[in-house]
């Protein structure tokens, strides 16, 4: 071999070693050891599709934006926090009332409000948006070093306050119980952080069920170490005695199989690799459905969300796109209440007009959970008209 060949081979070897080192560093930095194996070798088909619309069957896409809505993020003055909430209440109807999905409904936004930031003036304002039919309010919680009893007290008190003081949440028509959707602060559901911070309650799923939680919307959390091995899924999880992160795996929601007793519905957003945007031109970006100032919603991202294939087993043409954001962060609020979001809604309308198979539906978190149960019950066409009526969903009855 000539010296030129040796130089070329040496350069290639050095390049491969550099790529391997970069990949290893990113693997650790993104805590991918918790989920990469399950992503590459899923236990069940994910229902992914190569393009948004394959085949001739109509595709129904349900879009829910679940906002970790924290007016006091960064600990500003109360006046700044109120101004953030007022901006949402005043601008959202003006900016988005002219948009309509395949049913003519305006974009919906679910505000998961943190119990630990409660002040009545925030919730009174958000209740106005709910009354105007632009969204809904559910429960968000940050806690640390907590106990099951302490968690129960927080959730029960906040649930009662939201319902009785502000006219928010809703009652299950069968049990009469006040029910709520949930997002865990710092992603640490079921005490899932490796260092044990920002929760403390191993049996959190049981406490949620017993206090009226109809579904959890925390995942995905990658690149956090709280990310579950289960991804791109609608499934049920229960507490496992003596174990943290009990929701790491569970029973998949399936057509023809009712919700299992004593288990909590887990509604996950998309988690895929985005190879069109690579770090160092080599490694893919993680697409986790997060809407923020540097990464607004777009039709290109929508195609990745659809490729995640989140659906009820047996009903792959119903696509569940659960997105998340922090709508009170500087920069994020400008994007979410700005031209980028308006462009996204225009693109959805364009695609629906262009292809009659594509049907998109703006839904709240509560409505997304009801659609999961519609699919489980065997519905082939979603009944969106029933979602604003009292829910037929029966919550699992807990037994000792």
Structure description:
The protein is of the alpha/beta class. Helices cover 33% and strands 18% of the residues. The strands form three sheets. Strands 1, 2, 3, 4, 5, 6, 12, 13 and 14 form a nine-stranded mixed sheet that branches. The radius of gyration is 22 Å and the shape is globular. The model is unreliable at 10-23, 46-52 and 389-400 (pLDDT under 50).
Question: What is the typical, i.e. mean, pLDDT?
Answer: 88
Unreliable segments (pLDDT under 50, ≥5 consecutive)? 10-23, 46-52, 389-400
Given this structure, which CATH class is correct? Alpha Beta
Biggest sheet features:
9 strands, mixed
- The coarse silhouette is globular
Domain count: the total is 1
Q: How much of the polypeptide forms β-strand, as a percent range?
A: 15-25%
- Assembly state: single chain
- Can you count the helices? 10
Q: What's the order of the H and E elements?
A: HHEHEHEHEEHEEEEEEEHEHHEH
Estimate percent helicity. 25-40%
Return the CATH architecture: Alpha-Beta Barrel
Count all strands and give the number. Answer: 14
* CATH fold field value: TIM Barrel
Measured on Cα atoms, how large is the radius of gyration? 22 Å
How far apart the termini lie comes to: 76 Å
User: Structural class, please?
Assistant: alpha/beta
CATH superfamily: Glycoside hydrolase/deacetylase
């Amino acid at each position: 071999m000539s010296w030129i060949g040796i130089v070329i081979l040496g350069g290639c070897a050095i390049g491969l070693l550099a790529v391997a080192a970069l990949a290893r560093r990113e693997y650790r930095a993104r805590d991918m050891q918790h989920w990469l194996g399950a992503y590459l070798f899923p236990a069940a088909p994910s229902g992914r599709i190569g393009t948004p619309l394959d085949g001739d069957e109509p595709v129904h896409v349900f879009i829910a934006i679940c906002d970790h809505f924290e007016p006091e993020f960064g600990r500003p003055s109360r006046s700044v926090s109120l101004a953030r909430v007022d901006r949402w209440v005043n601008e959202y109807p003006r900016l988005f009332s002219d948009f309509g999905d395949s049913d003519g409904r305006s974009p919906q936004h679910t505000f998961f409000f943190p119990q630990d930031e409660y002040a009545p003036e925030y919730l009174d304002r958000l209740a106005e948006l709910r009354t105007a039919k632009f969204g809904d309010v559910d429960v968000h919680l940050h806690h640390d070093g907590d106990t099951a009893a302490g968690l129960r007290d927080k959730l029960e008190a906040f649930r009662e306050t939201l319902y009785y003081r502000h006219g928010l949440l809703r009652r299950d028509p069968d049990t009469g119980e006040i029910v709520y959707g949930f997002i865990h602060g710092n992603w640490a559901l079921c005490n899932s952080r490796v260092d044990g911070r920002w929760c403390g309650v191993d049996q959190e799923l049981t406490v949620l069920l017993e206090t009226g939680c109809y579904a959890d919307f925390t995942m995905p959390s990658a690149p956090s170490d709280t990310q579950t091995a289960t991804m791109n899924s609608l499934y049920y999880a229960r507490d496992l005695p003596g174990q943290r992160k009990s929701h790491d795996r569970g029973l998949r929601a399936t057509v023809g199989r009712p919700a299992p007793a004593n288990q909590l519905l887990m509604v996950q957003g998309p988690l895929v690799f985005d190879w069109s945007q690579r770090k160092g031109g080599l490694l893919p970006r993680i697409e986790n459905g997060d809407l923020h100032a540097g990464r607004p919603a777009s039709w290109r991202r929508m195609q990745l969300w659809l490729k995640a294939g989140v659906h009820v087993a047996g009903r792959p043409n119903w696509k569940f796109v659960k997105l998340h954001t922090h709508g009170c962060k500087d920069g994020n609020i400008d994007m979410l209440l700005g031209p980028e979001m308006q462009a996204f809604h225009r693109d959805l309308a364009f695609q629906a007009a262009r292809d009659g198979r594509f049907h998109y539906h703006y839904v709240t978190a509560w409505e997304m959970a009801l659609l999961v149960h519609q699919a489980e019950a065997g519905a082939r066409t979603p009944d969106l008209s029933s979602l604003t009526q009292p829910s037929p969903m029966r919550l699992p009855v807990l037994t000792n």
